[in-house]
């Protein structure tokens, strides 16, 4: 594997020199593994919060959206602010998936939000502002229509196993 990796990297202009290729970490070496592993003693104080956030987002996608992507079609998107958009899809089984995203530092007017239940939002309680006609700064909200109650009740990231699959 080591020899094959060096040959593969030789195709890149930055590694045409044999001395530079010799500095490529050995993928089978324990030291390479150690160097690529995060130093848990240096993790940010909010590491677990971010880990839960990403696991929750991935669980929503896995349990609520992905099973319905076959036959899905976009049915509209519109700019609702300088850095904000609202997009909608009809999923394969007929439900709708809508997202509102504001990457701006200022809230934007947001009237008549999509039908359905909020299945993901950040920051927390962003849907409250949306109900009042405003999409907050740096906000994402996703709505889903249809019968997804069973999956929704079980999508929390706390149910994500080490394998990355949800229960």
Please describe the topology of this protein.
Elements: H1 2-9, H2 18-21, H3 30-36, H4 47-65, E1 73-81, E2 84-90, E3 96-102, E4 108-109, E5 117-122, H5 126-131, E6 134-135, E7 139-144, H6 149-153
Antiparallel strand pairs: 1-2, 2-3, 3-7, 4-6, 5-7
Mean pLDDT: 84
What percentage of amino acids are in beta strands?
Answer: 15-25%
Rg estimate, integer Å: 22 Å
Counted up, domains total: 2
Order of helices and strands: HHHHEEEEEHEEH
Q: What do we call the CATH homologous superfamily of the largest domain?
A: Golgi alpha-mannosidase II
Class per helix and strand makeup: alpha+beta
Shape: elongated
Q: Indicate the CATH architecture of the largest domain.
A: Sandwich
Strand order of the largest sheet: 1-2-3-7-5
Tally of separate helices: 6
Poorly predicted sequence stretches spanning 5 or more consecutive residues: 156-167
**Extended strand count:** 7
Binned, the helix content reads 25-40%
CATH class of the largest domain, named: Mainly Beta
CATH third-tier fold name of the largest domain:
Immunoglobulin-like
* First-last Cα distance: 36 Å
How is the biggest beta sheet arranged? 5 strands, antiparallel
């Amino acid at each position: 594997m080591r020899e094959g990796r060096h040959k593969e990297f030789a195709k890149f202009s930055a590694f045409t020199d044999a001395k530079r290729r010799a500095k490529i970490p050995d993928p089978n070496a324990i030291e390479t593994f150690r160097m690529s592993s995060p130093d848990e003693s240096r993790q940010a104080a909010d590491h677990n919060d971010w880990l839960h956030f990403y696991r929750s987002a991935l669980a929503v996608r896995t349990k609520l959206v992905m099973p319905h992507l076959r036959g899905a079609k976009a049915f509209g998107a519109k700019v609702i602010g300088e850095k904000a958009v609202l997009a909608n899809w009809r999923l394969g089984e007929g439900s709708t998936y809508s997202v509102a995203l504001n990457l701006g530092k200022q809230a934007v007017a947001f009237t008549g939000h999509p039908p359905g239940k909020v299945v993901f939002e950040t920051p927390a309680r962003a849907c409250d502002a949306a109900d009042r006609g405003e999409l907050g700064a740096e906000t994402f909200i996703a709505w889903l229509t249809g019968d997804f109650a069973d999956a929704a009740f079980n999508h929390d990231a706390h149910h994500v196993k080490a394998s990355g699959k949800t229960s």
